[in-house]
Design a protein that fits this description.
It is built from twelve helices and four strands; from the N terminus they run H-H-H-H-E-H-E-H-E-H-H-E-H-H-H-H. By secondary structure, it is of the alpha/beta class. The chain has three domains: 69 residues; 61 residues, no CATH class; 178 residues, Dna Topoisomerase Vi A Subunit, Chain: A, domain 2 (3-Layer(aba) Sandwich). Strands 2-1-3-4 form a four-stranded parallel sheet. Helix 5 links the parallel strand 1 and strand 2. Helix 2 packs across helix 3 and helix 5 packs across helix 11. It is globular, with a radius of gyration of 24 Å. The relative contact order is 0.12. The mean pLDDT is 91.
Length: 330
């Protein structure tokens, strides 16, 4: 469909206006949900709007790095020369350690806790959305990008095994697309985890995991959250590759979990990026689920552990007679 100049101008003006108010850059697909929430486009415009935003990055109407970047495409090993002398650099490094060592030191956050939480999401924008809360509660988070690979599953399992060895109950919180495959991924995550049970890692250590289905909690997206906040339903079951999941395969059959979805939800779906329309509410939902396991005073418990580290470090400096930053380095 050919789009008018006015349609394109409204999109461009809106993203330029809203961009400075966002905490993090978001992907082009998430911009579509933001634009819909602003009344600029409808769900039928998403594909064209996404292409237009990409086009604007190429023609200079938007910065080339306007949208979020996927980590696997980021250059590593890049070194920038320092702008100060090595002497000044040394003093500043020592000063930073002096003033901030207690903030950088990681105590055993989970000592005395009952549960150990991790977060697995399906989309990069969800990871960015929930990251501030993950930091507050010291929760590891990863983007599974759909079906997680073996290495990521093992990484997840290692921390679950560590938690179990400490007498903690590991919990995996999950957020992803509300569609047949998105729900199937979360429904079968426990089976995918147990596929590695009993295998050996590269060091000869045997994987031994005893997690159960009730230790995996899908909290986002779900139908009640979608309906409560009037998020966008897409009236088809097209996959990312353009395949219609609602149509029978070459054998004339539809997979059971897809048929169950059609019977209960219909031929529609809601993509995870829709949560970007209501970031505050999505974070509140995440925090409510965290507090369901850790309690409402979890942050206070964590902060008291940080305060104890600061107290111990100050006492150490006083015992060593170095309570103040050395004058010889100031």
């Amino acid at each position: 469909m050919k789009r008018s100049k006015e349609w394109k101008r409204m999109i461009l003006d809106t993203v330029i206006r809203i961009s400075p108010t966002l905490e993090n850059r978001v992907g082009a697909r998430s911009w579509c949900y933001i634009l819909e929430n602003e009344g600029v486009i409808t769900k039928g415009d998403f594909d064209d709007a996404e292409k237009f935003i990409t086009e604007c990055r190429k023609n200079g109407k938007l910065p080339v790095d306007f949208t979020a970047e996927y980590n696997e495409r980021i250059f590593e090993g890049v070194e920038e020369p320092e702008q100060v002398t090595v002497e000044d650099y040394f003093v500043e490094m020592v000063r930073n350690v002096w003033n901030n060592a207690h903030n950088w030191y990681s105590p055993d956050w989970w000592e005395g806790e009952k549960y150990y939480l991790q977060l697995l999401v399906e989309k990069l924008d969800l990871k960015n959305l929930f990251m501030p809360i993950c930091k507050e509660y010291h929760i590891p988070v990863a983007n599974g990008k759909g079906w997680s690979d073996i290495n990521q599953r093992y990484d997840l399992i290692k921390r679950c095994m560590w938690a179990e060895s400490r007498g903690l109950t590991p919990i995996i919180l999950y957020a992803g697309d509300f569609d047949p495959y998105g729900k199937h991924i979360s429904d079968t995550l426990i089976e995918n985890i147990h596929q590695l049970d009993g295998l050996l890692d590269i060091n000869g250590n045997r994987i031994n995991i005893s997690m159960h289905r009730n230790q995996i909690k899908r909290f986002c997206l779900n139908k009640d959250f979608i309906d409560r906040h009037n998020l966008t339903w897409i009236d088809n079951l097209l996959s990312g590759s353009g395949k219609d999941m609602s149509k029978p395969n070459k054998n004339g059959k539809i997979k059971r979990f897809i048929q169950e979805w059609i019977d209960t939800v219909g031929k529609r779906k809601c993509e995870a990026e829709a949560a970007m329309k209501v970031p505050k509410e999505a974070r509140q939902l995440f925090e409510q689920n965290i507090q369901g396991y850790l309690g409402r005073n979890a942050k206070e418990r964590f902060e008291s552990k940080r305060a104890e580290i600061e107290k111990r470090l100050l006492a150490f400096k006083e015992r060593k007679g170095i309570a103040n930053f050395p004058d010889t380095l100031a």
